[in-house]
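Why does residue order matter? Because the sequence determines the fold. Keep that principle in mind as you read this record.
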Amino acid sequence: MLGRPLVLATFGFTACATLAVGIDWSPVRPLNINAATDGAVGDYYPHLAGDGQGHWVCVWCAAIPGAPNRDFDIFVARSADDGETWSEPVRLDPFATGPPEIEDDFHPHVYTDRAGVWIATWYSHDNHGGTIGDDTDILFSRSTDKGVTWTPSLPLNSDAASDQTLYDYASDAEPDLACDGTGHWVAIWSKRLTMSGDSDLYIAHSTDNGATWSELALFDPNMATDTGNDWGPRVATDGAGHWVIVWSADRALGGTLGTDTDVLFSLSTDGFVWTPPAALNTDAATDTVDDNTPRIVTDGTGRWVVVWYRGIYNVVDYDIMMSYSDDAGATWSPPAYVNTNALTDTERDQRPTLATDGQGEWVVVWYSRNSLGFPIGTDDNVHFARSRDGAMSWSPPAILNSSAFDPQDINYDWNPEIVAAGHGRWITVWYSQFNLGGTIGNDWDLLFATACTPPLAGDHECDGDVDLADFAAFQMCFDNAAPFATPCGRFDADDSGVVDLGDFIAMCAAATGPSPGP
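Structure:
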């Protein structure tokens, strides 16, 4: 850290129009590093987890061409440098290649206790060599070497061998996991038992870090008799005795809600006993719109945030909503827009995910056809918004994927996932058919971008120190009136849209070091 503030000798570099507010995303790169050579293999639905020590694991499903039909398998890649570089993709499940497995595996997720245990889950049609049915069941696999090797998959839902024989249509899907850091994991997923029946939520527990799982149980006893659908559950814990599950449902909760889709929630102090479901969106009793795919994250220090998308099915305009809680989910703020252009735009903003650095900074990503005034066509691109005040207010939506500005990019970018990598770093991954200017194939591949929002004002290098290199870079970005261009967003300490004198003052303060003693 410098001992005294520096003075810039010269200014005068004029910047271009900004593409973002206060945050710079790297150029888009393929995460599956075989993207240029994997031919007709399609890569979809990536999901990430990190241990806070620079190690990351990404899982996804890939469509492997074959006769007579293609087969979806789960693939994995690893990073040991906070997502800057990635290993060669490999099949995650040893069972997928021996014995031969030709049934589809879909929508994987990966989780870690940040202490050496990694668990991947997905749902599959495979009958596991005839040991379970060929309906969809929840499979899981574990790794204790940062994703290098994985155990052969096993069914997580304890009725996998029998549910297909008991019901005319047994379908387990959409699993999500969370752990409290003591070896206790909770798994929640949706299940439909009959072709004409509704979908309900089921839960299971592990007390040995995911090695074995309890018998499944219906999450809410009322789900056995109601006729509404419950789906898309997500679970989170702060590791201090608070657990929250959120999901989408179209049931009226005893007539207290309408028949549109709302976001429901339930709370627990031990992960085993849960409160009756209640509406999270406080306007659930009076609204007539559908609230879908909630995602929940806590900063571990008392704030919980849920995001979802809202609209009317098959009507063009969807928007991104959020609500927060400061009492472990007991009460929730009224729904508010994340995309601040919600009242004027007419495009679909959907499938949001969010992350926090645990220090008041939150970022939400989603995909949308809204061009935000740029000449980038009408395809879906990845959007984001940033909050620096604990999710109380949000920056205007901005384009995240730099490929959107390539005139040749007329392809869709879908289902982004964002994670906070620590040290002010962020990673977003999604899947796209854009060939990155001919450098990769035209099949679906995984694309990603990284960003840094340094805790110290002006730490352009994100190395935890405001030094001479940062001041030199600041000179290239300073303009007291004109909007900045990337990569100058890290200097916009007050999110004003310009790198100005106020940002310089904040940078100098960050470079002074601790106050001298008496």
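The longest helix spans residues 468-477.
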